[in-house]
Amino acid sequence: DATEHASVVSVSSVAGNFTGSNPPWYPTAKAAIAGLTRALALNEGHRCRFNAVAPSAVATPRMTSYAQSDAGRRWAETNPLGRWADGDDIARAILFLLSPFAGYVNGVLLPVDGGQLLVL
Fold it and tell me: Which of 12, 16, 29, 118 has the fewest CB atoms found within 10 Å of its own CB?
C-alpha cells in the first residue's frame, strides 16, 4: 500500500494560526501551506500521506542577533519550555511524520513550538 511508505511533510509556521503578524503576507502564506496540506491529504491521501509542521521561533544563524536581543530573550521567557527551538527539534518532528510511526497520520498541522500557542 503506497500510503504506508509515501509521505510529504511541508513546513508552515505557528504564525499561520493567528493574525497580526508583520508583514501580513507571512501568516497568509503559512496558512495557505496548512490549507494545501489538508486539501492534498483529503484528495490524494489514498496515494500518499500529507502533513505539515508549524515551528515557532527557531534559533538559526539568521536569527542569532534577534534571539540575543532583549525582545528575543523575553520571547524565550514566555515560551513554556523557556527557549527557542533548534533545527534538531524541527527535524525530529519531520522525521516522525515521515516515519512508519506516523503511518496513520494524514492532514495534520503539527505545532513544534514548545507550547507557545498556549500562551498567545
Answer: 118
CB of 54 closer than 8 Å to CB of 111 = yes
- DSSP readout, 61-115? GGGHHHHTSHHHHHHHHHSTTSS-B-HHHHHHHHHHHHSGGGTT--S-EEEESTT
User: Which among 50, 26, 40, 38 has a CA at the least distance from the CA of 102?
Assistant: 50
104 is catalytic: no
Average pLDDT, integer, range 72-85: 94
> Whole-angstrom Cα distance, residue 8 to residue 51?
6
Residue 111 near residue 71 (C-beta atoms within 8 A) = no
Q: What is the pTM of this model?
A: 0.89
